[in-house]
């Protein structure tokens, strides 16, 4: 489970904005946040993907981003955050966070995506979700218990605060090290988004090395 940020830090981080862009990449490719957001693992370069299970673009991005994630170096920490803009977005986001809290998200993430986009399942209720994840080897009763737990409610609030701090209005959106925001449209497509992420990772790594 990702570390929870203290409220005071998140309140400060939520004051985001647009600043000047770096010189080594075209300005239209990404936005620099004027108030950097703290990363969840200090000392590592963090890459965040905000997504929604119901988003066809997020689903189409999976075969491209997943192999990239597997090859990330040890100094890079990848985090998925569900975007929760209300309604079914919140329901699906809480489902993801429940699975994450249970430590089984990595086992069923693809199956949930496939169920929505190939089998046209809606997952509007926790009971429907629980029935499905049970077919994937997840304990149904434990899922239902965890879904409304204090820990998951805290994770929901934290991730909503993060989306606000990042200034995210759509998905899929990527954030590098709490500073740089871009999406598939601004970067030029799935492959281009990951190339941009690599460039920004290297930029942060170089800056970190220069500061030591």
TrEMBL record:
It comes from the Bacteria. InterPro entries: DSBA-like_thioredoxin_dom, DsbA/DsbL, Thiol_disulfide_DsbA, Thioredoxin-like_sf, Thioredoxin_CS, Thioredoxin_domain. It is found in: Periplasm. The keyword Transmembrane does not apply. Its main location: periplasm. Pfam families: DSBA. Residues 1-22 form the signal peptide. Keywords: Disulfide bond, Periplasm, Redox-active center, Signal. Residues 14-202 form the Thioredoxin domain. Belongs to the thioredoxin family. DsbA subfamily. This is Thiol:disulfide interchange protein. The lineage of its organism: Bacteria, Pseudomonadati, Pseudomonadota, Gammaproteobacteria, Pseudomonadales.
């Amino acid at each position: 489970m990702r570390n929870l940020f203290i409220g005071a830090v998140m309140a400060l981080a939520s004051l985001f904005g647009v600043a000047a862009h770096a010189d080594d990449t075209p300005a239209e490719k990404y936005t620099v946040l004027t108030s950097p957001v703290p990363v969840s693992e200090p000392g590592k370069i963090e890459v965040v993907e905000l997504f929604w299970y119901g988003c066809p673009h997020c689903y189409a991005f999976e075969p491209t981003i997943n192999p990239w994630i597997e090859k990330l170096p040890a100094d890079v920490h990848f985090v998925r955050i569900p975007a929760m803009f209300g309604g079914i977005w919140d329901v699906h986001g809480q489902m993801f966070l429940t699975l994450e809290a249970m430590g089984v998200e990595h086992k069923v993430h693809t199956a949930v995506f496939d169920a929505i986009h190939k089998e046209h399942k809606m997952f509007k209720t926790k009971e429907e979700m629980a029935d499905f994840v049970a077919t994937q080897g997840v304990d149904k009763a434990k899922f239902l218990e965890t879904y409304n737990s204090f820990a998951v409610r805290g994770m929901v609030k934290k991730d909503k605060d993060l989306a606000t701090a990042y200034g995210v209005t759509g998905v899929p959106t990527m954030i590098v090290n709490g500073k740089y925001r871009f999406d598939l449209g601004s970067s030029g497509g799935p492959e281009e988004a990951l190339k941009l992420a690599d460039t920004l990772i290297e930029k942060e790594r170089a800056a970190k090395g220069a500061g030591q």
